[in-house]
């Protein structure tokens, strides 16, 4: 008689405002599952953080990654502490998970939620609706390179960007799949192939190859420098955007700012083969300046939760959650980063009340 769909979620709040927004996200997800029925969510919380790293020398305890593998998805807060170097915390927790689970596609939807505003004059909610697909495993962040002659005037450092046909093709294919599912079927491939003659040219070649399998998707090529201007000057001309690890990292911060606030944007680290769990997180960091004040915007985490539900196959619940989040924003119940006065708890309560009111 048990036709209930069950999902097991690993929750890692980690540092700064991470635990605050993740517990808000869990509360909202539980309310949603109760109200809608048909599926159940079980959460297992892991208290891995920079605090545990400082005590034990490890972000992830022995066997921790195998433990994570048992879950259907990972719901992640933020990692980073003022007294731990960023590259240590990032590689110690977040990137260890991304790499172990082959989460090679990082997906960042960006749009202007109802009730929020873009800093761009005359940019309404329908004028900016993008999905940025970031290569999440190689490129400029492959960790290849080194330094010689340390401290000398003639010191040399190299940071080698690594691109493979396999790595580009699997990402490109995934980008095309996303573009195909969206109404406009428009994909913009971003590179810097006028100045970089190897990796970026390979990107262009692989894009052209993969495009042959997606004749229904319109492909458009941009150099990353010109792309930044186009995002600001002509946002409605873009839809799905595929870019390298570094380029997309930069473009997606620009995108989040153009959409209103870093406090609303979600990101998904996906293993499109579904052999491993994927990880879902707000794009903002640990934000120690507002930690413990109860004013962190939980909307990015709610949107993240919706992305996670959609990936698990609960598209209707995901859409429902976004309707509730947007109606709360429209009612003006928003945190200070969006110009409001509401606390994290007030926004969370309002979203839960809206879910219950509609069901
Ligand atoms: P990290 O080093 O982990 O990236 P950070 O301290 O650099 O963290 P971010 O989270 O990247 O900070 O964000 C920069 C600023 O944006 C923060 O200092 C904070 O004031 C604001 N901010 C970030 N997230 C939120 C949020 N959810 N709600 C409100 N303001 C936020
Ligand atoms: Mg930061």
From TrEMBL:
It catalyses: (R)-malate + NAD(+) = pyruvate + CO2 + NADH. It is an enzyme of class 1 (oxidoreductase). Its cofactor is Mn(2+); Mg(2+). InterPro entries: ICDH/IPMDH, IsoCit/isopropylmalate_DH_CS, IsoPropMal-DH-like_dom, TTC_DH. Gene3D superfamilies: Isopropylmalate Dehydrogenase (3.40.718.10). It comes from the Eukaryota. Residues 8-351 form the Isopropylmalate dehydrogenase-like domain. The keyword Phosphoprotein does not apply. GO terms for molecular function: D-malate dehydrogenase (decarboxylating) (NAD+) activity; magnesium ion binding; NAD binding. The keyword Oxidoreductase applies. Pfam families: Iso_dh (PF00180). Keywords: Magnesium, Manganese, Metal-binding, NAD, Oxidoreductase. Its EC number is 1.1.1.83. Belongs to the isocitrate and isopropylmalate dehydrogenases family. This is D-malate dehydrogenase (decarboxylating). The lineage of its organism: Eukaryota, Fungi, Dikarya, Ascomycota, Pezizomycotina.
